Amino acid sequence: MDSQQSRVLVQLRDLILKGEFVPGERLAEIPLADKLGASRTPVRLALASLEHEGLIEQSPGGGYQMRRITSREIADAIRVRGLVEGFAARLLAEEGASRQLLRDLHSCLEEGDKTVNKPTMDLDDYAAYVEVNDRFHQLVMQGCGNVALQRIMEMLDRQPFASPSAMLPMQSSMKEEGHEWMRQAQRTHHALVQAIERGQGSRAQALGEEHVEIARMNLEYALERPELAAELLPGLKLVADTTRG
């Protein structure tokens, strides 16, 4: 994914979380491209990515439209992703990671550190971290060599807000607190790579499962503070709170 597409993808997610669209609203390429100051191609590719994540759906009249999402389906998918990624990390630790994979993981760590350790993060920083974060998780899943796990992850990536970077705009909206959560996520990346290098399977699995808790905490944080969500995350009107039923 190139930098312009990553930026447009982050912007579109952010617009959704800021309440710019309502369930059933059609998302047309040309108006969105004009709104974002981008060409149609990155907008088209970003919309396809958002459909893959389950955040939007195809419109009966062609193109895409917003869909209604339940908090339960988000939370369930996030938990399952933790189990899958945790097991993938365990396999890497126990079976051994190649030197090239470890070099690639360390490269992600270095790039991520440069981004999240800034005093403040702007939209370009979030777009850059999306790329690094997605690449890190892809490396772990591809490196584990378990085709069944990889297929399960592909299905999970189609669930709303369940993909590795889907909750990052929510952290962006929450400003300082979200920035600290991202730093914590990056620290977990470091610990996960360390566990893989040391062959600590149980620790790697636990870290993989724990890592997704940041995304789940983001969701719960907003749902439990409707007055804050109304100000910072009005897009949560797309999410029906079903975690307490």
Automatic annotation (TrEMBL):
Q: Which Pfam families match?
A: FCD, GntR
Q: Which InterPro entries match?
A: GntR_C (IPR011711), TF_FadR/GntR_C (IPR008920), Tscrpt_reg_HTH_GntR (IPR000524), WH-like_DNA-bd_sf (IPR036388), WH_DNA-bd_sf (IPR036390)
Q: Provide the HTH gntR-type domain boundaries.
A: 2-69
Q: Is Hydrolase there in the keyword field? A: no
CDD domains for the chain: WHTH_GntR (cd07377)
* UniProt keywords, alphabetically: DNA-binding, Transcription, Transcription regulation
Q: What is the protein name for this chain?
A: GntR family transcriptional regulator
Recorded source organism is: Variovorax humicola
